[in-house]
Please model this.
Amino acid sequence: QKEVEQDPGPLSVPEGAIVSLNCTYSNSAFQYFMWYRQYSRKGPELLMYTYSSGNKEDGRFTAQVDKSSKYISLFIRDSQPSDSATYLCAMSRGGSNYKLTFGKGTLLTVNP
Amino acid sequence: DGGITQSPKYLFRKEGQNVTLSCEQNLNHDAMYWYRQDPGQGLRLIYYSQIVNDFQKGDIAEGYSVSREKKESFPLTVTSAQKNPTAFYLCASSKAPTVNTEAFFGQGTRLTVV
Model:
């Protein structure tokens, strides 16, 4: 079983839809959880950063972490064509072991 | 503007050649990382460095080498021992790793073997 699993998609939605992106993980030691957005041929851009369980909201984006289920989600409200990108989840144990482990990414297309 | 600069954006290598990818950051970050990205495989860690003059192998270090002589610079050399070097290479940095782990990325270097 891989440490981090992420459905690669592709996921295609109409403009204005609510998008749900998810990752599952197997290592219960992970404490820090991140979502990155990557446009084609560009470097990943940090979208959301969360420590431990709970929700975090930033504009149209909401990140959720459920450590008991080892499951994290990113919700995008009122999706826009400019949201079309690959979304990568990443996580780490923190402390002296800070190496990030990434999911393979989900390709999202928002159609106008 | 603070950020991470990778150069060149595109690089072509002949069989048997070593090439060096540049990564410079002006964020005053302590830790720096090199990742390789291949289609369908996500990001894989090649090397990382927590402090100047110290670095550790990641998951796929074979055929690569690095140095960390300055805090702001972390160049990656792809040696002829790397059998399949064609990929997208990403450099990242973060603050003191024991404090937080959010990493920021450069725009990448696409290496192609010709």
Observations:
- Chain A has a mean pLDDT of 92.
